[in-house]
Design goal:
mainly beta; eight-stranded antiparallel β-sheet; Pnp Oxidase, Chain A; single chain; 7% helix
């Protein structure tokens, strides 16, 4: 039975693009990113209508990916260095480099459903500096989180321009679903899609 609703957000992983691999695109092994709070992808693109016969005769959608906010309890220093192009000095200080260029990566994660868990991957992401609000401690302690802005772009895989993929556990895909966070899953296309 398919899900009626999804909720929650966890199991976030980052897999950096592997420029050294012989077959492209390729990604390194996903790295867990603990402390997932919120992920809010917003559509980039628009619908362009063509009018004829006094009506919308044809409409085409442009999919340019997403922009998103990823809120994390604390972005680890090693990931800041790779995602943002920052540097670590000889004393271990993390230095924000004004002209630093970060690496592109895939973002993987999981949400729960009323019937089954769903895992997802956004294949081509780049990040900008995290926003952080620091507040004094009052009667109660509030955690200050990191909010990273992401640009998620289409990427060509198997002659298709793709942006993301979602998979729910079913009777035939347990191997792929259970190993989803071990490597970036590349879709395989057939002439008859599952469920058709």
């Amino acid at each position: 039975m398919p899900n009626k609703v999804v909720f929650g957000f966890r199991n976030v992983h980052v897999a950096f693009m592997d420029a050294e691999a012989t077959e492209q695109p390729a990604w390194e092994t996903p790295i867990p990113l603990p402390g997932a709070v919120r992920f809010t992808p917003e559509v980039v693109g628009e619908t362009t209508p063509f009018y004829a016969d006094d009506t919308t005769y044809y409409a085409v959608d442009t999919n340019n990916g997403y922009t998103a906010e990823l809120e994390i309890a604390l972005l680890p220093d090693d990931l800041k260095i790779r995602m943002l192009g920052w540097k670590r000095d000889t004393n271990g200080m993390i230095v924000e480099v004004a002209d630093g260029v970060g690496e592109q990566f895939a973002l993987l994660g999981q949400v729960a459903g009323d019937q089954r868990n769903r895992r997802f991957v956004y294949y081509k992401c780049s990040a900008t500096r995290p926003a952080k609000e620091l507040t004094t401690k009052g009667e109660s302690t509030e955690v200050n989180t990191d909010v990273v802005n992401l640009t998620i772009s289409p990427i060509e895989i198997d002659d298709e321009m793709i942006v993301k993929g979602d998979i729910e556990l079913n009777d035939t895909n347990a191997t792929v679903f259970n190993s989803f966070f071990n490597s970036v899953y590349l879709p395989t296309f057939s002439t008859t899609p599952e469920g058709a």
